[in-house]
Amino acid sequence: MYVIDGDALPGRGELLRNVYVGETLNAASRMRQHLENSEKRQLSSVRIILDDKFNKSVCLDLESYLIRLLAGDGTFRVLNRNSGVVESDYFERDSYRTSFKDVFQSLRDDGMFTRSIAEIENSDLFKLSPFKALTHDQAVAVEGIVEGLLEDLEPPKTNSMSVVEGSPGTGKTVVAIYLLKLLMDIAFSKPQDIVDSNSIFSEFFVKENRELLRRIKIGLVVPQQSLRTSIQRVFKKTPGLRPDMVLTPFDVGKAEDHFDVLIVDEAHRLNQRANQPSGGQNKLFSEINISLFGSDDLVKTQLDWIKAKSDHQLLLVDGAQRVRPADLPLGSLKALTIDAEKNMRLYKLMSQMRVRAGEDYVSYVRRILGAEANLKQLRPESFADYDFQLFDSFSTMREEIHRRDAEVGLARLVAGYAWKWKSKSDKAAWDIELDGEQLRWNGKPVDWIASPGSLAEVGSIHTVQGYDLNYAGVIVGADLRYEQGRGLFIDRDSYFDSKGKENNAKLGIKYSDNDLLQFITNIYAVLLTRGMLGTYVYVVDSGLREYLGRFVPPHSHA
Predict the structure, then answer these.
(1) Position 557 pLDDT exceeds 80
(2) Sequential DSSP letters for 134-164
(3) Neighbouring C-alpha atoms within 13 Å toward the C-beta of 81
(4) Fewer beta carbons under 10 A from the terminal one: N or C of the chain?
(5) Is the pLDDT of residue 192 over 80?
(6) Is the pLDDT of residue 244 over 80?
(7) What is the Rg, in whole angstroms, of the alpha carbon atoms belonging to the chain?
(8) Are 259 and 305 in contact (CB under 8 A)?
């Protein structure tokens, strides 16, 4: 193994030092090859890692590990390309990975890292980095999408749409970012570049594909403001990617140029025609419709903009994460997946990357928040090595979240929109009062989780959707209730997201309590699947607390 670094080249954006990580059987020969490469010629320092017990599998695993940590640390621009590493098992992997920490510490002592492993792994730069070891189903999706796109770009060109479907924590955003970086790496690779034949995507790095991809215009559409800003920060530090590649749906609609490829993350959060957050956006929605379709057709959605402004689309979706009436209708999303499946362009992600308890936990949460009709089929389940607890005291849960944050970081309180946001206009006001404790909603709409003071605040769905936490303390407010015989129901007067419950006057749609119940239970399902190591729950409504007490283990005071 080796790590080489050097000063940044002028005119390449942010002046971070550059670094490249590789593995080889002949270090001297490999260094000569790098010196012949114009991009790596300026790398001036090399550190070689030797271990006579390392085999090829171990080296590839360590290479991937160091690349991810260097990208997540943010001190260097990582020059490695995304030619493909799949998360795989091999003989005595756990033992070898223990030794990786010693390698990391040696490099940190030598100035290659500025933060600990835990600090790096808790950062957005790490979590949203394109340098990932893919799960098997992610790798299958990426390979199929790239093969299909390259085929469609060959004359005679044909338009296409691919869909990646997956529940929370299966890595939809990982696929989106990884794919964009891979396409850029293929496009701007050079004939003299050496791509490891062990990499699963090495076959794509050929002259024909470079020529097909070099001139394409590509963008990543992210509807949520907070997640979009975090991804832009990552792209600023990643060779081949630029912050202006990350777009809002409105950016796409009003763009002068046509896109060859648009990747849409969280595509279920695209809007249909509805009252927008501002008068300016309402006007812009109409103007974009007129520009693209000749009239202000009320049935046109932001998805129609995406289709009109690009030849090829990749949509990453989960219909169960629709949280507002303005989001794309569930029927539209189902139609997309049906069409994609017919065209052999549907890819399903099943491996759970976030929640340690696995995909069974995610489906369990969704069943618990389902209809009363399913109650007879529900049975309490336990999840080994996952800290899932129901608290009868909010103060105790808050203390536990603080304790977990001190241990591992990234432990936060989150809640449904069941309290007015008084502090938005009055910074001295308290928003949430429980058990004699006073709290405020998140003080920042962007990058809240990592912001100073976030541990003392409560995150809303619009701030945390798409992000990982180590521990989530979920406050279920009075907007969701339960009564024996009636089942789950909502309290409109205790739901304060105005955009979450307003009727759609434009389309003449009135949302019933059952409609809102679906959105509100979706919100809590999202919140309950943020925690990687554990989820703590406090419930305001006594009936719902008793109901959930059948399925969520009580807090242990031991």
Answers:
(1) no
(2) B-HHHHHHHHHHHHHHHHHHSSSP--EEEEE
(3) 22
(4) C
(5) no
(6) yes
(7) 24
(8) no
